[in-house]
Amino acid sequence: MQETNAPLSEETSLRDMAAVHDLLLRMAQCHDLDQLFALVTDHLGRLHDTALCRIWLMEQADPQRCAACRHFYDCPEHRRCLRLAAGYGQSRVSGETWTALDGRHQRFPLGRGKVGLIAASGEAFHVDAVSPDMPWVSDPDWIAREGISTFLGQPLTHKGEVLGVLALFSRSRHDGLALDRLRLIADYLAVSLANAQQFEELTRLKRRLEIENTYLQRDSADPGPFLVGDSPAIRGLKENIRRVAFSAAPVLIAGEVGTGKGAVAAELHRQSAVAAGPLVKVDCAAISPAQFEREFLGERQGDAVHVGFLEAAGHGTLFLENVDDIPLEVQGKLLGIIHSGSFLRPGDRARRPVRIRVLAATHTDLFRQVRQGNFREDLYYQLNVLALDVPPLRERKEDIPLLAEHLLSAFATQTHRPAPMLPPEVLPVLTAYDWPGNVRELRNILLRAVITAPDGRLDAGQLAASLRACAPPPDRAERVYTETEMDSLFRDNLVRALNQCGRKIYGPDGAAALLGISPTTLCSRLKKYGISRRDGRPEDGRHART
């Protein structure tokens, strides 16, 4: 394919059909959307009489960007607007080249300005003999200084839907023939744009499925057992969820392991303005540091595209579990993306807009991580715009009877058995325990009791023995461990779980259920710690984090 900045004859203009035909041929050879936009604007912008050529694309409005937009009070709907995607031009006065995508005209509301009118009506806009005093002219000085004589604008329309606007400012007078030439280019551009958008959407959907099977669990309308209860603590949490759910601001969810931070995120998404979009849950602890940037931003290599978490979560919610495990260098990029609402995918030429609601969760004291230099202070405050604390089970023990009934009913459905009885003598055993593993530990203890109950009746003595076995030794309860010791303990715990379950990972009697995590998360952690699924021994001699 020819270079997009190949020199054109000084006499070449939009009226020259040979030049238009050459552009259409070059467009047919271009398979990348960003390159296609650059090709069109560079070609038309370099015509001898062109001052400026630009392409705007229709996109869903982002409430955060809307609030800062200079057209906020002129926008009729705050649902869709036009975003400047490409441009090329050159000043005849200073020689300055115009390629920037920011500035006063980076966005247009529908129906406002000449570009907005074209998008709202779906009709072409042609002004021959432009003068600075015309009402639609937003910069009269520029019109006079650059000697603009004609404005040509065409909607990018595909199957009756306006996808964007192609506009051109010329220093020559142009008649309807030039407008027809621009229509040919706009029609071809619209078809290419529609095909690319459909392909990108299919790629995103495929990637979401890959993410689901590799790193995360998808959203469910049922928050599971974690939000079951009627205690003051859980009622307060539900009320706080209701208050902050519809906001687009980030939320930091804090709570001990097993309290249900993921269920809180799912409920926030379900009640949010982006509930129709995806909920992408990313376990940051399950991603190796070397892969973070590629997994978050994606990557383009030629025509092959790897969609990252940010793009997969577009028009939805990105939930970052164990957010404190994000490497510092990636934290800075994440902060910039949240601020700007766009990101640059490696291999792309232009930044891509991203509209997501960001939720983050941690079971550590994140501000202590900031003081220790392990987490960026500016990102901490960006994520902590809204904060939710999930109460531990020991602070809402009055919910345990409802939780137990809910869990036993669910287990009965999973195991195709009658729901076991919950004898009165069992409840004092359950409420006397402090549940360091919280609701997840309660679920695992009851599941074990259901599986081993010989006659479908839970035994209080057996439950008490199980709870005593789960309690940490006194010396461990008080001791502070180094990071290396914690890695070793965590790895040894995974190996013990595998061995106790006969190296079985899936199913109610598998190691994932015993640990209270999903099988996909367990597989990721086994890989992270170099543990073989076959024999529980390290692979390649690895021990610590990779």
How are the elements arranged and paired?
Blueprint: H1 17-28, H2 33-45, E1 50-60, H3 63-68, E2 80-90, E3 97-98, E4 107-109, H4 113-121, E5 125-128, H5 140-146, E6 150-158, E7 161-170, H6 176-214, H7 232-244, E8 251-254, H8 261-270, E9 279-283, H9 292-297, E10 299-301, E11 304-306, H10 309-312, E12 316-321, H11 328-340, E13 342-343, E14 352-353, E15 356-362, H12 366-371, H13 377-383, E16 386-389, H14 400-415, H15 426-432, H16 438-452, H17 460-470, H18 474-478, H19 483-500, H20 511-515, H21 519-528
Parallel strand pairs: 8-15, 8-16, 9-12, 12-15
Antiparallel strand pairs: 1-2, 1-7, 2-3, 2-4, 5-6, 6-7, 10-11, 13-14
Helix pairs in contact: 1-6, 2-6, 14-16, 15-17
How would you characterize the overall build of this protein?
This protein has 4 domains: 183 residues, 2-Layer Sandwich (Beta-Lactamase), CATH 3.30.450.40; 177 residues, P-loop containing nucleotide triphosphate hydrolases (Rossmann fold, 3-Layer(aba) Sandwich); 74 residues, Helicase, Ruva Protein, domain 3 (Orthogonal Bundle), CATH 1.10.8; 71 residues, Orthogonal Bundle (Arc Repressor Mutant, subunit A). Helices cover 42% and strands 16% of the residues. The longest helix has 39 residues. It is elongated, with a radius of gyration of 30 Å. The N terminus and C terminus are likely disordered.
Short description:
By secondary structure, the protein is of the alpha/beta class.
Keywords:
single chain, Beta-Lactamase, Helicase, Ruva Protein, domain 3, five-stranded parallel sheet, 21 helices, disordered N terminus, disordered C terminus
